[in-house]
Specification:
alpha+beta; Sufe protein. Chain: A; 13% strand; SufE family protein; Fe-S_metab-assoc_dom
């Protein structure tokens, strides 16, 4: 879609800006993603057996990254998220164009989304 990475970064920043504002009450320690250099708050809710994610970050690139993940994973079933193949991240070259600390943060975000999905999946299967 874009010819160079500067255009991709600008698009990621725009995606981050388009995220709905998160309720300030959700910016709590228990919502912080461990392993991110920047602060990233991730909240999940189960609605009609689909997970809806909301997030915020104090860094614009990181907010764009989490916005991409929300577009991919939000409104999916827990099972679909748990089984989701994340090779699209490598295919678009995202990880290789991030600093090592941001790449680790990306992995932590995906891991946390999948952990939420596992928890909801267990809840639904009770």
């Amino acid at each position: 879609m874009f010819d160079d990475w500067m255009e991709r970064y600008e698009h990621m920043i725009d995606l981050g800006k388009s995220l709905p504002l998160i309720d300030p009450a959700l910016k709590s320690e228990d919502k912080l993603i461990k392993g991110c250099q920047s602060k990233v708050w991730l909240h999940s809710e189960l609605k009609d057996q689909h997970i809806v994610f909301t997030a915020d970050s104090d860094a614009i690139i990181t907010k764009g990254i989490v916005a991409i993940l929300i577009r991919v994973f939000s409104n999916q079933t827990p099972e679909a998220i748990v089984q989701a193949d994340t090779k699209f991240i490598d295919e678009i070259g995202l990880k290789e164009h991030l600093s090592p600390t941001r790449a680790n943060g990306l992995v932590s975000m995906v891991k946390q989304m999948k952990l939420y999905a596992i928890a909801y999946q267990a809840q639904l299967n009770q």
